[in-house]
Structure formats: C-alpha cells, structure tokens
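Dear all,

This email documents one entry for the complex benchmark we are building for the journal club exercise. For each entry we list the sequence lines for every component of the assembly. Then comes the predicted three-dimensional structure of the complex as a token string, followed by one or two observations. Please use this as the template for your own entries, and keep the labels exactly as they appear.
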Amino acid sequence: MVQSARFLLALLCISLTTEAASPFLWDSPYTPSDSGNVVFSAFSNPPKTLDPARSYSVDETQFIAQIYDPPLQYHYLKRPYTLEPLTLTEMPQITYLDSHKHPINMRNPQNIAYTRYTLTLKPGMYYEPHPALAKTTAGEYRYLHLSPTTLRTIHTLRDFKEQGTREVRADDYVYEIKRLASPITGSPIFGVMSQYIVGFSDFPQTIFKSAAYHRNHHYVDLRQFPLEGAKTLNRYQFQITIKGLYPPFTYWLAMPFFAPIPWEVDAFYNQPYLNEKNISLSWYPVGSGPFRMIENNPNARIVLARNPNFHGESYPTEGMPEDRQAGYLQLAGQPLPLIDRAIFSLEKESLPYWIKFLQGFYDRSGIASETFSQAIHITPDGTPLLTHSLQQKKIRLQTSSSPAISYVGFNWLDPVIGGSSERARKLRQAISIAINYEEYIGIFMNGRGIPAQGPLPPGIEGADFQRCNPVVYHCQGNIIQRKSIAEAKQLMQAAGYPDGIDLATHQRLMLTYDAAVSGSPDDQAMLDWYRKQFRKIGIILNVRPMLYNAFQDDVRAGKAQIFSFGWMADYPDPENFLFLLYGPNGTVKYDGENFANYQNKQVDTLFSYIKITPPSPARNQAIRKILAILQKDSPWVWGIYPINFVLSQSWVYPIKPNAIANNTLKYIKIDVPSRTQYQLAWNHAKQWPLWLLIGIIGVTTGLLWYFYQSRQNKPSTRRKK
Amino acid sequence: MHYLLKRILYAIPVLIGVNLITFVLFFMVNSPDDMARMQIGGKYTSEAAIQNWKIQNGYDYPYFYNEKVSGINSLTKTLFYRKSMSLFTFQFGLSNQGRDISQDIFVRMRPSIALAIPTLVFSLTLNILIALFTALFQNSFFDKAVRLACIALISISSLFFIFLGQLLVGKIFQWVPISGYQSGISAFKFLLLPILIGVIASLGSGIRWYRTIFLEEMGRDYVRTAKAKGLSDFTILINHVLENGLIPILTGVVVIIPTLFLGSLIMESFFGIPGLGSYTLDAIQQQDFEIVRAMVFLGTLFYILGLLLTDLSYLWVDPRVRLGESS
C-alpha cells in the first residue's frame, strides 16, 4: 500500500516536472499543436445545427458565417451598414415586372407584381476539399453510391481517404433555395420566404406528392423539382423572383441561408447509415468561404482552419474618416483571412472563461455581471473605465451598441390596457413614465444599456428621428429628462384611475405582468423592481413568473396583459423593427411577430409604404410619422437598447465592432510573439504549495508511525476492575 | 439462476413505469409545439413550420390513445408507444438536433468514465486508508482532528469545493487548466482538478462511515483473539479488520459502479467535460425529450443492474448468503 502511494506520488512529480521542463504552461488549456497563428475564442452554447438552411442562432452563425459564402456581405468598415458583393461580380440586377411578368418601370410601383433579382457569380471560386466532391479517375463521384457494407466501416468523415473540389456554380445557389423551401429541411425562414419567393409556398406539396419523397424519405434530389422563383440561367447566373416589392430582400442575400450547397453534398450526407454516425451536413459544413471546419466536437471545441481553396479577398482599403486613427485601416489591402486557425472552446460557466482570459488563454472576452466589478469602474459621470489591474495588462475595452431592443409590451386586445381609447392610451403613457429604465440599467445591467426612445435602436436608419420620446421625457435640445411621477399620476387621473383607484369599481387597479424567468438569482429582484415601478402610480402589479414555454404560449394566445420581450435585428433596416408593430403581423390573429397585437390603420398604411420603398427622403418622412404615432400610442414601454462591452488583449489588432455582419473572423489579426510573451509572464505554476502538501503528509505519517511504534513497544497493562 | 431470471423480469415493469413517469412529467412542462419552436428558432415560427417539424420528428401523434385508428394501432400509433417502447430494444433514435443518440452516448461515455473511475478509486482508497488510521488511533488527537475535519467537509457544499478548487489550484497556483477537456493523454491535466475535488468532497462522509465499520469490527471477538495471539495492531488491521470491514463497503460501492457511466451532472458542467452528465443536463435545458428519455432509461437500467450486482457481490464476499431463499 505504502509502495503504491509512493509510486503514484513519484508519477505525479515526474509528470509535473516534465511539463515544467517544456516551454508549455501547466495551466494552459491547449496542446502544443494548438500553437501558431491562431485565434483562441469560446462559445457558451453548443450549436444545434450547422446546416445553413436550418441554422438561425448566433451560437451557430459565428461558425457557419466563416465557412459559407452567401452572394452579398456587409462592408466591414462602412457605416451605416452597406451591402457589397461577396461572390457576385456586382450587386444584383433588379428588374420590376407586371402581373404578366413583363418588365416595367419603377416609377409606377403600384403596377409592380414581381421583382426579379439577377445575380452573376465570380468565376473560379471553389469549394473546400471534401469527400462528397471526390471523383474517380473515370470522373465518377467516388463516395456518392456507397454500399451499406462500406458505409458501415465509416465512423468519421476522416475515414474517407479521398477529397475533391469543384467550382461554385449558379445552380448550387438555386439548390440551396430549394432546400429552404423543402419540407425535409424544415428551414426556420420557410414561413417568411413563402410570402416573397414565387412558388415557395407550394414547393412542399410538390415534394410530398413526388414518388421520390415516398421512395426515399431522407434524400430527394431537388434538382428535378423546378421552383418558379429560383432559376439557373447559366453556369454563373441565376435569378430569384419575389412577389411584389420588398427592397429588404437584398439583406437576406447576405445571410448564410442563401449560401451555395452542391447537390453532391446533399446526396452524400443523405446516404443511409451516415446519419447514425452523426456524419451530416448539420455537423460537417461544406463551403467556399475563408475557413473550413477541421474539428467539430460541439461538446468541447470546434476548430476552423484556413480553406486552401478560398477564392481570395483583401482587407478593405476604405472606411469611415475616423477608422484610420482608430487603427482599423492599418491592415488595408492585406489578403484575407489573417489567421490560420480559430479554436473555439466550450465555456458554459462565466468564471472559468474570465480566469482563462486573464491568464491570456483567450484573445477576447465579454464581461459577465459577476465579474463586472473586476473589469470595469464606472466614473461619476457614467463613463466606463477599465480597472487598474486590467489596465496594467494592457487590455482594451470596446463598447458598441447592439441593433436590438428589449421592451415591455401591452396587449392591444386587452380591455383595460389595450386598444386605441384615450383612457387606455393615458394609462399606458403613465406606466411608460413610471418604469424608470435609467434605474434599471444601473441596477441590473451595470450601465450597459440606453433607455429606448422608440422601436429603432441606434445605427438603424430613422433612429435619429426618435432621439427623445415626448411622452416619457421632457425634451429641450440635447437635454432629456424623464417626466416626474406627479405627471404620470396626472395621466392616471385623466385615464380615470386617480391614485391608481379605478373610478368604475372603486378598487385599486391591478394589472398582470407575465415574465419568462430563467431561475437566475436576479429574477426575483427584477420582478420586485417592476412591482415597485407600478406601485409608484398606485397600480398593483400581479407578476406571473413562468418558464419560457408557458410564457410564449400565453403571449401567442393573447392571454398576457403586460409582458417583456426582445428583438435582435436580422438586417439594418427600420422595416425589421417596425414590422413588430404592423397590424397584419399580429400574433393572435395572424400568427406573426407583433406580440402586442397592436393595430393602427395609419401605422399600417405607412408601414406598407416603408416596406416597399427603398431608402429615400420620402421614406424617411414616413418613418418619422410612424415613430411619432407609436410614441403617442405607446403600445410598448420602449425599454432598453443594449450596449456591448468587449475586452481585447493587447496582442489583438483593433477590430471594428460590427453587430450585423457575422463573417468577421477573417479580419482578425493576432500578434503571436507578443501573446506568447504575455502568457509566459502571466502564468507561473507555484510549486511551494505542492511541497508543503507533501511535507504535511510526510510529517503526519511519520508522527503516526512514531506513536504507533511507541504504543506497540509499551508493555501491556491489566485493567483495574 | 431462477433468482436472476426473476429479478430481470421484475425490471421490465419498473422500466415501463419509469418511462411512463418521465413521459408524463416531461410533457406536463413541454408540449410538442414548444419543442418545435425551440428547435426551429425563436423568430418567424409559423404554424406550418411547427406542424412540419412535428411530422418530421414524429411528434404529430396523440399522447396515449389514437382515436383516428382502430385496434392495436390506437395504442401503437401514439407518442408514448413510438417514443418509449423502442428503448427496450436499445434503439435510442435521433436527438431533436438530428444526432444519433447511441453514437453520442458511446462517445460521451468515455470522458464520464475517465472522470468517474479514478475519482471512485482514489476516494475509496483514501477513505479506507484514513478511516483505518483513525480506527487504529481511536480517540487520539489525530482521530479527533480527522473527525472534526470530516464534519466540516460534510457541511460544505460541493459547489464550494468546485469554486475553491478552481480558484486555488487553477487561478492562484496555476497547476492545471481551470476547465476544459481534450481526449487522449491530454485529458490527464484536465481531469486532475475535478478528480481532486471529487475525492476531497467524498472524504467527510466516507471516512466517518468506514471508521464506524472498522471500529465495529475491532470490537469483535476475533480481533481480541488475534491480539491475544500477539499479532501487532497493524497486522490485525490489515489482515483481519480490513478484510471483514470490506464486505459492507464493497456492497455499497458495487451498487454505484454501473451508474458511473452516466457521469456527474455538476462536475462535468462546471469543468466543461463533455460526458454524459452534461449531455443529460443540456438535453433538459434544450427540451430534447429524445435524449432525456434515453438517459433516464439507461439510468434506471444501470441502477437495477447495480442492485443485482450488489446481491451477487454478497454471494461472493459472504458464502453464508443464499439468494432467493427465505431463510
């Protein structure tokens, strides 16, 4: 037993000293093979799918946006966000068609029945090496018709010895659009695209009726099913036809949903038995972008590496006037991507992530609320500054607004709080004043937010028109001051609720607030805070905390009276926020995203105009009008626009925040020698506790042995009775 | 053999019952529509998309009784039958994310075992070793100090050990990575800290329990006889007390051996170890019924197996025991 313990101890010491002798750090979470021109990053939630047709979450987009190339992308530096061709030779050519599909002039928008986008691809773009594209010497695809016996011997994608590639073609883009429409794929944007792309909504029925679907439920070759709204013209050209006018459609073309998928890849992954080995498009993407996935363990880490077949791109040479001074243009003209690999490690808990960042094992980090005070010091005037310890480490802080809003919605269908009556409007306005979001941001968000003045977050066109909400604030030039509770009480009185007492019933007004809770310790404090806000104007708030599922069911059924929700922009257009308040998009009647079920004829008319009109002064005028009506009607308490705080290590070249584009990994550059130096300086394994521990164990064992020997050698004595 | 067969047959209604309870509890909180929304994504989830997801994933059946069909089909063309009965043939199917569950379990079982078995072996060894010493030096300063330490260890939450371990060993001493996992030989440095914490967290209750067992054995007649024969205390302890004391210890350990495969929910989550514990926890959070039912089924099965092995281990360590006999 003692010998075994000695052996184990010796083994431990040898192992630790061997590590110490090597240049690698004891506490490094990486292996020697992970070194080099690599970005070290983390993800907190494993991706659910990496199929570009099915993925619709930030957790997934951070990977697939680096791998797949949709036709367009956002310019990295230009603001407001500007689309530019990515795989196209130029921006899509737009043709307007009448009901007979004859081209017509844009000057008569009322006659436009269809809009046709013609997209021309750059020639000479190739997919990453992949077994699905491997061919035999005879030109046949090597792995598309494997026998069940062969497939059973395959366990990972690496078991396919051969890889191949081929040029990206227009029909690959069309194939992906068909995948979006296919019921087999189950794309989350099927519903929204059915409203626009011609023939999209009927496509599932075509598939269901086909013999191929019934013959082979899993793989259906979509090439044999025409889709009217997506047609290949030639090797490099394809057309998408949408119903009516919908200028924001071009923004969708910058999302991975519209990236090319070769039919061979679909056929390859849908062979029997491969799915049983978890070899599927959901887990092994095939793209033509700057990176390819070389390791996919969604439960531990995901590794992206430079795609050897990437078509090439350069770092932008122009941006905004302030970009040069900020250092965003120092890499201008350099070929992309600027790194060889990116290692993303799963970090579910914020504390280990933070400690590893401080140890230099992550290049960038957000700031969790529990570590906020270690990172940020807020000055009396509200400016966030890095704490002294972080400044010493030369860590940089970057803040940027997010194109998102979190709001409190009033159910328009509710007889008390909803509807266009003056009484209900005044009640909503009084509540909007009472809920003090400046206080909320200070207490619960560490100052990381801006009180919202309307539905449009900063950076979205039209946001400047709602700089100050006159319903909630006193607006005098640049001075914005929240109205007093006395003014809110006046509104309550005007609404027929003096001091919160309903004159009709002589009872105190009680409203119900549905809140989705996560089980976080902050939940209760937050709900208490909301109760307190309503109490200020004499309203009793009945809070119903519930799990997200039940909450969603309540909101969708119109059972929630007051509720909290949020929205993150899909694209930087006001339409993507204003549609949340468009009547025909109401949740209860139309199963849409207007969770407040707000309806106002004037707003609906203006929105219909905004939706079909490209940016112009007239459109801006309509946005201005719509915002004024919304502020007056107050269907939401406008809530908060979140602010992102990101920390970067000194060895990371300046990165311009881009809240809309996701394919920004290619612009990141790392000073690797500097990182190594800092890591060595920040990580010294302390050996004394180990020796102390060994000493304590040794001394205790020695003492015990001594006492034991003394006891054994002591002559035995007879016990006295 | 008859006893074994009987126990195996008893297991079937237990497994069906546990399946039923899991099914009812899960669907009391989550409806198939909720699951569809969760999987499709929060935005633009139309009713048609939800229906399509349900059809694709087999959630378009009624829960227990299908009125639209007749005969046996009214029971088999139901959600409960289709989702639960296949488990008895170990066909776990695909998760809601489209991943093969059997394959995932096979892959994720390895990190769980790599964490659980060394933790069990080291904690068992250390518990027995210290308990033997405390029994040997009963009522000495050492014994009292260990007992006091045990009470302290029992009183402290395991989460505290995790935070303290990460802070001390990972952040301040910088001996090992604070969290994470890599397969192969690299796993060693990632597992060191969770194993250490697992062992320390088990010491309090383990030492006290084993000490009681050893003290009980030391009061028996055979120990007095051995002493009278002039054997040293150490020899008596190792050769006689330990051997007899191991019977209740081993039977207590055998019952948990099969469940080691299922991993540790807390340890794996905090240390980012991709084992079956974090697999189950993630599945619950993501409302993935396919994984939850498979893991609950396996958990029940392993527990039943553990109980069976315990009975058999009694037979092995104590020849006086006869299974299935009333007296």
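Observations: Confidence is low (pLDDT under 50) at residues 1-23 of chain A. The longest helix of chain A spans residues 688-713.
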